[in-house]
From TrEMBL:
Subcellular location: Secreted, Cell wall
Domain called Hyphally-regulated cell wall protein N-terminal: residue spans: 16-334
Predominant location: secreted
InterPro entries attached to this UniProt entry: Hyphal-reg_cell_wall_N
Keyword Secreted: yes
Species, as recorded: Metschnikowia bicuspidata var. bicuspidata NRRL YB-4993
GO cellular component, one term: fungal-type cell wall
Pfam short name (any one): Hyphal_reg_CWP
Keywords assigned: Cell wall, Glycoprotein, Secreted, Signal
Protein's UniProt name: Hyphally-regulated cell wall protein N-terminal domain-containing protein
Amino acid sequence: MKLSYSEAAFKISICLGIASSFIVRSNTVEITTGEKLLEDLLVKRVNYSIVNSPRVHFVGHVYILGSLLVSSTNNLEASVRINSDEFTNYGTVAFNTIQSDFPSTYYVNTHDSFINTGSMFFGISGATSGTIPFRVTSVKSWNNTGMMIFWTASGESAQVLLAQDVGHNDSSIIKNSGSICLYNTMWQATTSIAENGCITIGTGSAVILNLALNSHCFSISKMQTFYLEGPDSVLTISGLNSSCTFPMIKVAGFGNENVIEFDIWHHDVSSYEYLTTRGELIVKVVKESKVVFHIGTGYLEQSFRLRLSTTGCKISYSPHAPNIPPYECSCQSVFPEVSGATCF
């Protein structure tokens, strides 16, 4: 069998003795109430499940061909920390404490690259106020071509951090040509977003797009779709008082009273118009600037409404969105279940 570059690099690092490896070759379920530390994890095309460990820590390389599941059946915490050189997932990764009575946190931090071409599920029962329970960051590169689900079962929306962690003097950029799905989750995006994927803003969720922060301007690919899936979905545009050039933002599902929000006051929005043939909603803001949203055709201009919000002002559309969301906005809400031979 021909090895991929990442798998070959993993095997070379093991042969050089960089770390003691942990290779899973058969379906395995570990049930333990102790903490776990794993170095250089390689999961072959099998299922590997860790159940009821309060904290699981991965270091070195993490390479998933099959499935990696971390969950709790005792209603307690089951947090995950991945501090690795590289994280590569071609299969399925699920961190699930949706039924737990205690909050968990899931951190994926890589020094080199984060690559997901498979499916990743992050689910918690609730979050402690003021914390960020979901973090997926990488120093050198961040690339998602698969599906990533972030789910908070109850309480206030939990925060998620998705970014290229490059420090204070450079701009972060993440590449998303897959789907990122948020449910009862809030993402304050301080990063450029490249490629042609979809970010689904599900029920109880919000995305705050910071187009500028301090001296940095962030770019948003005009092919990236922000899908307002529910009637309470919110897309907030921030940084409009800057001198940055604002990108065209592609939005699907705008309607049924979900909102596009701005962090400027009502009097700073001079006007808006809808171009029926081009499917563009143009909002003119301060300093004669404008933000263009590609929302699709079929909207009725008299059904748009601009009004005050808690952060500034917002625009909504009363009827349902006239268009169906694109295929790349598909999200799976059913988390994988534990399967395989049991080891105690």
